[in-house]
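For the sake of transparency, this paper describes our internal protein records without simplification. Because each token names a local backbone shape, the row as a whole describes the fold. One such record is reproduced below, unchanged from the form in which we store it:
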Amino acid sequence: MPRPQRSEPLRDLPVDGPKRVLLAAPRGYCAGVDRAVVAVEKALDRFGAPVYVRKQIVHNIHVVTELEAKGAIFVDEVDEVPEGAHVVFSAHGVSPAVVDAASARGLNAIDATCPLVTKVHREAVRFARDDYEILLIGHEGHEEVEGTAGEAPGHVTIVNSPDEADTVQVKDPSKVVWLSQTTLSVDETMETVNRLRARFPELHNPPSDDICYATQNRQVAIKKVAAQADLVIVVGSANSSNSVRLVEVALEHGAKAAYRVDYAEEVKQEWLDGVGTVGVTSGASVPEVLVQEVLAQLSVAGYKDVEQVRTAEEDLMFSLPKELRQDAAGQRDARALGGRTTAGEA
């Protein structure tokens, strides 16, 4: 998808009162996304182009486009990858069937699955081994949900929404557990769980939260911003579950309007009509440069006063996949812990 072009600059039109931006923090890259993106970059450095990636490495069109320019080739399935080539599994995870298919083709697979997604996979395997029925709260068709369900075939039923919780059927209400996709709305997920528990009082919980820290932190931050905002702009791609959820959460918690954009050029003049306070945030797969470009566009429209609203600190980093922790000479690589952090810094 080509980057959109703005036909004319935004205008600084008068509004009642001062103009300001409330910039949510944390925002942007999480540790799992950072690890996955750096994994592709390092694979290209180490093995040379092309390096193949099954599905989008993370759900952000800008990131994918930049990696393509460096020599990454994105495919839907491993049977599109030449035998013996290097293939990276995306941050969303894959099922054992995909791992087996890559092995059968003699591919050099590098698993960039977010460790927090891997945790959910292990939970699914464990509960299936103990013959539990797993109610997986998530969006059917999403790569993460497909990967988790594939860990426990025959044991997983996907629950897409709170309303589906009212109709889902189980074989044995005494042996049922819920797990979830890591990027959902916390509030909606708990509504789904409560409605499931009303029907199945013996419903078991996962050992720890499945919704990842980054998703939760970004939702908490935008709730605080939304309560004060006339407009919220979420930077993130349409297929990014956590970005789409941020728009929903903003509207549910006081924002008068909320929109998602991939690029600053998509911010529309009419969104700013009568708007004094603009909230800005970004999904967990969004590089900070895209947020700064939105702030620059808003500055042109008179929103020069930027206040950061921080609700949590994040300093988590994940080790790179084992194949990438050493350089070609066998020395531990300086970026073995992923590389960038500082996601959500002004």
Q: What stands out?
A: Residues 31-47 form the longest helix (17 residues). Confidence is low (pLDDT under 50) at residues 339-346. The first strand starts at residue 20 and ends at 25.
